Structures
1.
Amino acid sequence: MKTFLQQKSSMTTMKIFSFLVVLICFISCKEQPPFIDLKPPLILLTDTTYIKSIPDSVQPHNVLLEDFTGVRCGNCPRGHKIIEDLKTLHGNRVVALALHGEDFTNFTTPYDGYEDFRIPYTRRILDIIGKPSGLPFASFDRSESSSNTVGEWKSIAERRLDSISPVRLAISDKILDTTNMIFKAKYYMSYTQELNENIYYSVAILEYEVISRQLDDDNAVHNVLDYHHENLTRDFPVFFKQINKLPITEKGRTYVKEFEVKLPENIKDVKNCTE
Amino acid sequence: MKVYLLLACSFISFATLAQNDKGQLTGNFQSRSQFYDRDDKIGANTTQYLHEKSSNESFLYLNYKVNGFTFDVRYDLFTNSPLLNPQAAYTNSGIGFYSINKSVGDLELTAGYFYDQFGTGLSFRSFYDINIGIDYAIQGVRAKYKIGNYKLKAFSGVQKGFLNLSNGEDTRFKTTPQNISGLNAERSFTLTEKINLNTGLGVIKRTLDAGTLNSIANEINAYDLTNRFIPRYNTYAFDAYAGINFASGFSGYFEYSYKTHEAIRDPFVATLSDGVGQVYFTSLSYSTKGLGINVQARKVDNYQFRTSPNYLTLNGAISYLPALTRSNSNRILARYNPIAQVNGENGIQADIIYSPNKKTSFTFNYSYVSQPNGGILFSERYADVSHKVNKNLKTTFGLQSVFYNQKVYELNPDAPNVKTITPFAEVVYKLKNKRSIHLETQYLSTKADLGSFINVVVEYSIAPKWSFAVGDMYNTKPVRTPGTPQQAVSADKIHYYSAFSSYTQGTTRFTLAYIKQVQGVNCTGGICRVEPAFSGVRFELSTTF
């Protein structure tokens, strides 16, 4: 009888051990996976290359300003204002992307009942350029020029506008099918000088005038429920693709790529979209 | 450098303690030097034959026990060594192993490197085999605790590094960045006076580092959409095992291991895929006077568990899946071995030893390994009879037949299946004054791989100190299938001569041999790898103290 009781007690201990193992393994917090792009690939209608006998003239450099922001980031609207000022001054030579991501959860976690603007590409961009110490943060042309100080953004952007671009970019045949949520465009990327480095391109879908909640330390209301979110990056149909894989690309080399992109379903008003 | 300082400080500190308790220092030393004699005919022309001309591997292991503490340290030296990569010359040296162990009552603590395993090692086995240069030591901490009839074990650490054959990266004296942690509980039950039951449960958690996972994610993002999946940082392997022993001679062992989702690299096409894995293993035995029977079966279903899916072949193995076959020590009989197929295989092996009297014994073995779809990978039929004619003469005769899927086992798409029939004989004759003569011969008949061989070895021993042997493995009917590595070997009928001598004094043994060794799979402890031919002189020294 004693042996039986001892064994029963042992079995109980074994069960407790098994339970602890399962508990440790599965009740711990869920792991955050890396980004895997499971979207259907975009349709490439044209993909060709040729050399222009008379190369294009040099194009002034447009600046890509990636604004890493968040709906709970009270200082971020200051950066939004700087960007709007830059766009007023320099028009479409300033290409701004507002990027909401999963890092800095204190700043980026969506409010209950409001839309989640976060996209996984934001973290992938930070993996490429390096994670900042906090928000707001802006990257300029994904170069070494990046800043957490909003006051510097204008001068950095204008410095970069003074440079020239080695690749001339032109867009034609733009069609926005609002019924079927499809966007089509043809892109021409032409080398205006010989290059011995890799050039990458991305295509992003932006939406403007999206009204949602935003913390704004400069606003008396503080929690602005009808904040106008501009340059909201919805998707990257093409993310960080290399234009060509040749070690040296000659002057005049032109790549033509025509895409048909299915627009993300969370877009509120397709008319407020651009690529 | 920190490690050396730590070790130095530890030894100095405990030298003081040792004044009270003198402690006990033991150890061993092993050294192997090879001098290369290029022979293009057999394919012995790797870098050592062309450039370095000689190589050495030496290992000095020290164990010091004092005041309940145990200190272990091993110094490893590799000069121009082919041991880690048979195709390259590797030179490096350093502390290959160190650990501090202390028992406090029923609690035993280890810090530094350690070797361990759960069950038979299906989910986790950390071990070391110098014959093929593998060292899966874990560097970390381990605690063992006895509570009544329970044995609990927990550890956390990282695996010792290695020479990565795919990119040449050398972390042999460092560690890999992936974390491995484990929990294990074992319990013995006495069911009745004649029945004992031993059970165990274990779980292993392997966490990928961010660098490895990001590289995997980048690779997956480049796949076609249909082949993409979300990889995971953490993978768990669960292990349950039980062994039962009956006083009547029956015994049984069952083990099952399940591994959760992870990115797995297919060794054949090198791409990643997502999957779970499982292994079933069972062993049933019966022994009585004059008869021993053992039957083993194993089913492997997509089970490879490594520190990273980016590591291939023998690198970074956490799980231990040895070849499920008879372990042949003889050079010819051990030529073909079924390396466990981690993608999937079903295997069975049966051994019968029957001794009708003290003079005669019969051994039978059958093993069969197939792919999950039923395609045969390996089979072996083996029988021998051993008879002690008189006090001085013992003879053994036997026959072995093997089927070996060389295409799969050696990743050699043009290789035909190898089918062999090998009769063999062995005679040991004891002379006067502790002298003896040992003669063995085998004839391996096959129309594939390198073709047929006859092997003859004669050994003369003067116990306990001296031993001399000469042998010849002769490629009687050469075969060189186009498109296979065997084509690198001359199509001539080649002799693989060898001459061997050894001298033993106490615990010290010297061996000196001239060897021509055919290329093929070298196995030790069931773990195998393909090695090139060898031609040259080998000097070995081993001692314990």
Note: DSSP finds four helices and 30 strands in chain B.
2.
Amino acid sequence: MNQLDFPILSLMLGLPMLAAIICLFLGAHAARLLALATTLALFALGIVLWANYDIGGPQWQYVERVELFGNFAWALGIDGISMMLIMLTVFLMPICIGASWESIKERVGEYMAAFLFMEVLMIGVFAAQDIFLFYILFEAGLIPMYLIIGIWGGANRIYASYKFFLYTLLGSVVMLIAMLWMVQDAGTSDIPTLLNYDFAPEAQTWLWLAFFASFAVKMPMWPVHTWLPDAHVQAPTAGSVILAGVLLKMGGYGFLRFSLPMFPEASEQFIWLVFALSMVAVVYTSLVALVQQDMKKLIAYSSVAHMAIVTLGLFAFNRQGIEGAIIVMLSHGLVSGALFLCVGVIYDRLHTREIDRYGGLSINMPKYALLFMLFTMASIGLPGTSGFVGEFLSLVGLYKVNSWVTLVATTGIILGAGYMLYLYRRVAFGELVHDDVKAMPDLSAREMALLAPIAAAVMWMGVYPESFMAPIRGDVGTLVARIDRAAPEGDAHLKMGQATAAPKGHEAEAGHGESH
Amino acid sequence: MDYRLSLIFTLPEIILSVSGMILLLLAAWGGVKSARLISILAVAALFGSSAYALEFLTNPSFEFGGDAFYGLYRMDGFGSFSKLLIYFAAIVSLIIAPRFFKDNGTYRPEYPVLILFATVGMGMMVSAVDMLTLYIGLELNSLSAYVLASIIRNDVRSSEAGLKYFVLGSLASGMLLFGISLVYGFAGSTSFSVIADTLTGDLSTGPLIGVVLVLAGLAFKISAVPFHMWTPDVYEGAPTPVTAFFASAPKVAAIALTVRVIIDAFGGQTSTWQQIIVFVALASIVLGAVAAIGQQNIKRLLAYSSINNVGFLLIGLAAGTAQGISAMLFYLIIYVAMTLGSFICVMEMRDAEGKPLESLSSLAGLSQTRPGLAAAFAVFMFSLAGIPPLFGFWGKFLVFDAAVAAGMLPLAVIGIAASVIGAFYYIKVVKIIYFDDPAGQIAKTGHKTENGLIGLMALAVSPLGYLTIPLLAPVTATAAQALF
């Protein structure tokens, strides 16, 4: 069956599902404990998954398949990319539960149930090997997230929850029609088979657009990003963490898993669209982030900018770009999650997210200021943190395709440094003018326990990214080989006049680098 | 003609009509006191008929069906399947009724008897292969339904619902009859197979108008736009168990009847009916979604929801393939579970004195006062909206799959995009139940039967429902194949 001889992925889906149902009937404290225990157990299972993952082995591992539903199957299996995203999920979930430990006081059982159910769906999305199973799990995430925002959210939560729900639903429904068409055309709903099925180029155009509608909203790309700031601002802290940390990655995962390998020609055809939207996003949302007064909104806009780097890297059609994009996804999952937690920490003390209400926190909350600085730097992409690795690789990959787009994208990085440092200055530096801010205690042990693991992971990814790149290398290679036939010619090569050397693989790239 | 075979094939109807007449006599002699006994006997009769319908559906020796009474009536998988669904809905409507009527006056023995007669009519409808059987079945069902709608005589709204239903229903029957007479005039027969053989090629104006009028009459019965206007009024005014019945059993019967008429009688005229069905389907989806947004009464809202769902169902018919019909039948199973479940939830909306509440605002904060009922309500709403992982999604999935397979991509895309509009009001109900502060109007009832039924229906439309696909898919496929 697989290297462990038991259906570990099904277990990772079944366990939180069972715990979610039990949580509904438990009291507040018992529900918290059960949720924490379950998510920690899942993290342990995730480590087992990673430890037994055979790097360089078969593309799909831990494969399970039961023909359970007639038209589609309970088919699970992961490659390196899915595994890293599952790791991200199981790593962030205990932290989310911990972040809600004290701030959520009402309807705790239902809250924990919603989060555990969310975890089932997130792991399922990354592990699904049947396109319809993927769709069901992908869409099902709307229900718990709608409830999380709507019940435990802020003042304007109703509007935010409606917007989140309807926006993402509208994005996804057309994708279902495209999937139905694909399955009828290819005669199977098995994702690994579909990955190697060549759809007619003219059909690809429409299919790509249908998938794009869904993933662009989920990602989110400019101009369909407007649900994100609202959802982030209104969601409870843990909701924001999960939203930024994992849910946004589903969009990127969708591009990786569906749009690129299944429709390479169409992806190339629409490269201008992706680049244009991403360029606008990088610059525009960064500028918008600069003028925000609400911390969560600022981080939300920064997420849109970072996700634009992901799309740019993915559509570079080369190894550096795609690997970089995946690392940005992982890094952003950790960093933005941590930043939302940092906001949550001071929000729990002062119950406002307005930046001007703070200032001088480095004086009375030194530990907090230190960790906040680390995550700020990681968000900017300082070398030594996870942000640098991903952004550098994405931009290197992108540069091979289009140097002008790279120029604009790099501007976004500079602007990113601008708004993040500006935020940090206003929150942590300066005089302690407000008495209530002066009275805020530093991080509690619980908060330390939440932030420290993320800090460690961020540094690890920054200093030794190989641990995270090794599992995805083979799969990115497969993907690049698959889409290579449609890869756009880089603009830098055109002027070189190297008609003999086709710009493929590492050799050509190395030569290109030297000639500069 | 073998009368023995004819009688065997019509056994489900014979059992029901004979028991209906006996129970009517019993009701006349026994009076109001006998109501409970008569209900139990009616349920027993329905179970008896279900047993025969199940036998016809599953026993391989009945696989090819058979005609009864000189081609007026046909026993086949399609009819038997629809009947099972109808009987199930009728049984549930009988089980939930006594308590409701007791709380609102008296439970009269006429209720179960009328349900039985309506069910006989519906059985005739789904088995009709002749315009006259069709009409008689339809009228038997409708006449019982008119009376059922106004069965609480001293309630103005109930009487009004009955009257409205009667007047508009008669108009629709008139149109249907006029259409039938035109079709008969041009085809020379009322038999579906003869009509199919005679009306070939391009239709002249006469039979064309006939086909359109027949479809208009049927559209009224399935409450599809533009013949839907009676639905919200009748659903709102009729007593809730009756509304639950209207929204389930007759809907199944009318849709199955429409399918049979279109596929059997007008099967050769695809281009004629397909554009009508496509329009009616999309109009029903959009109007059902848009008009529901402003509703403040939960029963009216569910009425629009049923119009909306009929639109989705018709997408399967528009595809016109066996796959499409099988998708519709599967959708109907899920639809019946969702609808009955939501209406029983509505019945459970009562204040401390047992007075029924129907306004959406009375649901506010239900999740804090009655978490179980609230969760079930939310499950039905998300399921009606077709949000996975709830089972309501599967029905939509199948009809859209059929539409895509039939090459009707624009229909599928517009239909599914319009489903997002519908999602708005479903999540609005969830919002009222879960996000708003408790209104505290709805009291605990502790009705075991009702709660059990709600739980059963909620379980059926929960993700566990997907496990039934391998069991039900072949059955719906066989039933649909019987028409082709």
Note: The beta strands of chain B are 66-68, 73-75.
